[in-house]
């Protein structure tokens, strides 16, 4: 319960901040991403972020299988993760069914 609440609070706070930043940004999201990848120092951070998201995606896949769902259920979470990074896994944590141990 605490993990789900923490994920929900993080999702609302970070999702709200992301929406705010996107609303005041002067450049499109794809242009911003290309700019980040154009310099080695910022590209390293982006690559590191997506490696971490890839590992989280593997965990999401395994957890999803344990819960008896198909890969199609994960597709929206993976798409959100590809564009907004941590928002996808946070959304998955908020919406996943609790296990018997939880």
Principal-axis shape equals globular
Secondary structure: number of strands: 0
Strand content: under 5%
How many strands, what sense, and barrel or not for the largest sheet?
none
> Any low-confidence stretches, pLDDT <50, length ≥5?
none
Rg, please?
A: 15 Å
The helix content is: over 70%
Give me the secondary-structure category: mainly alpha
Q: Any idea how many domains? A: 1
Mean pLDDT over the full residue set? 93
* End-to-end CA span: 7 Å
Order of helices and strands: HHHHH
Q: How many H/I helices? A: 5
Summarize the structure.
The chain contains five helices and no strands. It has helices at about 1-25, 30-35, 40-65, 70-85, 85-95.
Spell out the blueprint of helices and strands.
Layout: H1 2-24, H2 29-37, H3 40-66, H4 71-84, H5 87-95
Helix pairs in contact: 1-5, 3-4, 4-5
Protein name: DUF2834 domain-containing protein
Organism: Pseudomonas tohonis
Transmembrane segments: 42-61, 73-95
């Amino acid at each position: 319960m605490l993990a789900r609440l923490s994920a929900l609070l993080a999702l609302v706070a970070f999702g709200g901040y992301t929406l705010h930043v996107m609303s005041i940004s002067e450049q499109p999201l794809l242009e911003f991403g290309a700019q980040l990848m154009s310099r080695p120092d910022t590209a390293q951070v982006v690559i590191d972020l997506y490696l971490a998201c890839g590992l989280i995606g593997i965990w999401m896949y395994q957890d999803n299988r344990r819960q008896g769902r198909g890969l199609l259920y994960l597709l929206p979470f993976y798409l959100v993760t590809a564009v907004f990074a941590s928002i996808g896994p946070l959304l998955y944590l908020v919406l996943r069914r609790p296990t018997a141990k939880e």
